[in-house]
Every structure is written in C-alpha cells, then in structure tokens.
Give the backbone structure.
Amino acid sequence: MRELIGKPAPDGPDLALTIAIWGGAALVAGSFLALLGDLLWHGAARVSWDFLVMAPEHAGKTGGIGPILASTVAILAVALLAALPLGLATAIWLSNFTRGGSLLARQVNLSLDVLAGVPSIVFGLFGNAFFSVVLGMGFSIAAGGLTLACMILPIFIRSVESGLSAVPDEWRRGAAALGLSQAAALRHILLPAAAPAISAGMMLGIGRALAETAALIFTSGYVDRMPESLLDSGRALAVHIYDLSMNVTGGDQAAYASALVLIVLLLAINSVAQTLTGRFLARRISQP
Amino acid sequence: MTPSLSTASATADTFTLGPLQNGPACCIPTPILSIENLSLHYGDKPALAEVSLDIYRGCITALIGPSGCGKTSFLSALNRLSDLIPGCRVGGRIRFGDADIHDPAIDLQGLRRKIGMIFQKPNPFPLSIRRNLEMPLREHGVDRQDELDEKIRQALTDVGLWDEVHDRLDAPALGLSGGQQQRLCIARAIVLEPEVLLMDEPCSALDPLSSAVVEALIQRLRGRYTVVIVTHNLAQARRIANYAAFFWMREKVGKLVEFGRCQQLFDMPRDDLTAAYIAGISG
Ligand SMILES: Nc1ncnc2c1ncn2[C@@H]1O[C@H](COP(=O)(O)OP(=O)(O)OP(=O)(O)O)[C@@H](O)[C@H]1O
Ligand SMILES: [Mg+2]
C-alpha cells in the first residue's frame, strides 16, 4: 500500500473529460443563446402590444399577429385536449402489458418510436384525407388540432408509458396487498411517481405542436383572419413565419418578431404545464 | 386528549397489544385458512404441488425451507397476490373462514384487506408517514379526520414507532431507517384491522437490532392476528412460532414435507429431511 501514498492522482484523462463535458454544455447553451440573441436583435424592435393584438396587413409585412396568435392557441388547445386524456389512458393500459419487458412490449414501443419519427408532412396528408375530407371538417382549426394530436400522441404515450414502467413494482404489489383498487394505486402512487415523465412528454408534444408547419398547411390552412369557431380555418404562428420568410419579400423583420413571440410562448406554456403537473401530481409524492 | 407518550423510557410499555403470551397461545386450534392440495405454476413450470395445511387462528405459523422451494409463492397464493404475476396459475382450494378465496364472486379488495402482507424489502409508499396510513384507510371508507388520526396514532403505537415519529408525521416515509420503514409497513397493514398477516422474511433486510425490535413486535401480534411468517432464521422461527411448516424441493417442485407444532418439528421431527435440514443449519 506504500505506493498509494504520496502520489498525486493522474488527472490527465479526468481533466480532458471535464473539459469535454463543460465544453459540450457550453456549446449547447451558447447556440441557444446565440439563437435567442439573433431573434432579439432582429425582431425585438417590432414586438409591441399592438403587434400582439392587431391583424396582419400587407400579407404580414405590417400590422400584427393577433388572429394568428388566437388560431395558434386554439389549435394547440384542441391538440392537447384530444391527445392528453387519450394518451394517458393508452399509456396506462399499455404499461400493464409492457412492464414485463415481453416481446409484445418491445414491439409496441418500437412501433410508437417509428410513429414518433414519421415526417410531419405525412401526418398532414393523413389529417387532410381523414379529418378534412372524410369527416368533412374542411380546412379548420379542429382538423389541424386533431392532426397535431395524432402527431404528438406517440411521443406522449411513449414517455408516460416508460415513466409508469419505471415505477418500482414493489409499490404496485404493496398497494394491491392493501386491497387498494387499481384506480387508487394509479391516483395516489403511480401517476404521481410518473409525473416527471408525464410533464416531459407534454413538453415534447407542445414543442413539436407549436413548431409544426407542414402538417398544418394541409389541415388548418393559412387564412389569417380572426377565427370565429373551431371550424374556421386559422393560420398558426409557425405557418405565418414560414410564409413571411419564404413568400413575402420584406417580411423578414415581422418573421423575426413572430419567431420571438413563438419562443416566448413556448417557454411560457411549458412552465405553466410543468407547474400544473407538479401541483397536481408530483406534490403528492414526497421524496426524502 | 392523547396521552403524552414522549417519555424516553416509554418505548417498551406503550405497546397496546397486551403482554406477551407465554403459555400455549392456541389451546384449541381452529383453522382460519385451510389449504387443500394447493399447486402453483409459473407458466408451464410448477413451483408448488400438493400442499395441504391449516393455518390456525391467533397463532404464528412459520414457513421454513431452502431458497426456491416456494415459500413466497405459497404466501402470495393466500391473498391472491399471485394474480398480479402474468402466467401464474394456482390450483387446489383455499378456504378463508367459510369462503373459498377463488370464488369468482369474492370481494378481492375486501379479502386483501383482511389478509395483510409484509414484504421482504420494506416498501413504504413515497408519501409522508401519515399519508402512508391515511391513504389506505380513506380508500377503505374511513373519512372522519378524528377517527383517522386516532387509528394512525394507535397503529404507530402498536408497532412502537409513535415515539420516534410523532413529531414528524408529515416527513417523507422514505427518509426513515430500514427498520423503521418495515415497522411502518406493518403499521400500514394493521391499521386496516386485518385478521391474517402474511410476512415474507420481514427481518432479513434489517440489522440485528432492528430485527430484534420487529421480532418482539411480531410476538405481540400473536393472539390478536393470525401470523404466517417466512423466515430463514431457524432460531427466530423457534422463538416466535406456535406452528412450523417445512418446505422442500422434490423433483424441482416445492412440497410441504412436514407441518406440526413448532416445538415438535424442531425437537422431534418426524421426517428425516426435516431432521437433516434443522441439524444442517443449527448444528
Ligand atoms: N415471478 C416468477 N416467475 C417465474 N418463476 C418464479 C417467479 N417467482 C418465483 N419463481 C420460481 O418459483 C420457485 C419458487 O420461488 P419462491 O420465490 O416462491 O421461493 P422461496 O421459497 O420464497 O425462495 P427464497 O427463500 O429464496 O425467498 C423458484 O424456482 C423461482 O425461480
Ligand atoms: Mg421468498
């Protein structure tokens, strides 16, 4: 044991690893900040209360994004109202089968992963064929929201399902042995314990839904008037940005400003969602 | 008013289950659980076959035997926890009082409330100490707050935990020590006023001191509850049990080799296997 004393630990590899880890983190954080800075630089000047509430004029070059914000929120609300209950129920049902790591479980998870990776344009074509044409919704906020719901369901189900599967079996057995119903075990133990996964799944879904253009062009359309019902067509923020930057000459500043609003909206919705899941689920669990 | 229980010397005499019974605890054995020709399969693989015995009301029955001979499987058949394991099939008949526990019309949640279970690894829920007891009570229809508080205090006192935790009932249960967690799990089971307690090696994850505390607690449960306990600690079985059942693997299937009064099984085993097992471990 003599040789262990008095020799400093060789810190070469450790140091390299530390630098690599911090470097990686700095790179990621840096590029996000650069993006945000770029948006602020080009767009902040345009963002004002008027910009948020006024209707767009001259194809969006002037005026605001009021109706577009309203449509975006409506589309997102439809998508979440459809996807969250359905996704939770499916994930709960699935996790009863997939917990053992059986063949069926792996296949179900694989197909969810594949579905989650399907390009959104495919969902757009499907949504157009099914919701707009077959169900007769036409180009509407409802059709767009439901298409987005289909798109975020696989991600959401997958993340809730893996959260539920990660809950230790001994709690399930303990609850059953106390004569608790499955519903009680879910409500008091399983869902609260899976709350971080549920909220992560929700964030991924919201992020994907807010950023979506391809799936919406075919379903909710790009009418930029204030929608009067869910069956009206409505232009989502991401579609608006796409339109401004690709089709409207001189629309750059408005595009930057809209993108800035989109990012702020995303951050705001995510923090609300996180607080809500925290309040309703995770609070009830107390880890030491 | 709740009496003050926080004196340091009160740990030993605040148990409310009455003094330890020294004499024969069950003079006239009346079966509370009758197991007839029980068999249990995991998929195609048999784990237990031809097990028949009676569990007597108010007594402690110890299950002993080597690892893998089906003791845990036997316990989980008694409260039908085996239903949770995919592919697990149970055959034979188990009578609890005058009900057949495999009767399709049986109230399964009611059955599991009456037959509580303690696991080898303490498994308190990730809730506060109080909510660990309160939540099952509420789910079983106890709503009045004063009644809940009283039952919780009683159960924690019964397991000797009240003095240790009464000032931090809202702290997370997972912050307790292993021995405290196991006693909390026992409290969580007895707060529902079960008739039978199934214990699967309740002391094996604990240090010797906590283990002695839990063992003393189990002794005090005698008479008020029927206890079925799996243990690899033969000295412990001998100290606490009235009856003992010895399981063994024959042709890779768990069988009941011998069942009898604890003293008889340890001192005058009828079966050579039992004698060899006891001698092998203790001698
Ligand atoms: N969930 C399961 N799936 C498949 N086989 C199982 C399962 N649980 C137990 N077995 C098998 O059943 C047999 C009996 O297991 P059991 O856990 O009942 O033994 P035990 O007597 O409790 O052992 P120990 O003393 O080690 O706890 C073993 O061969 C085990 O491999
Ligand atoms: Mg076991």
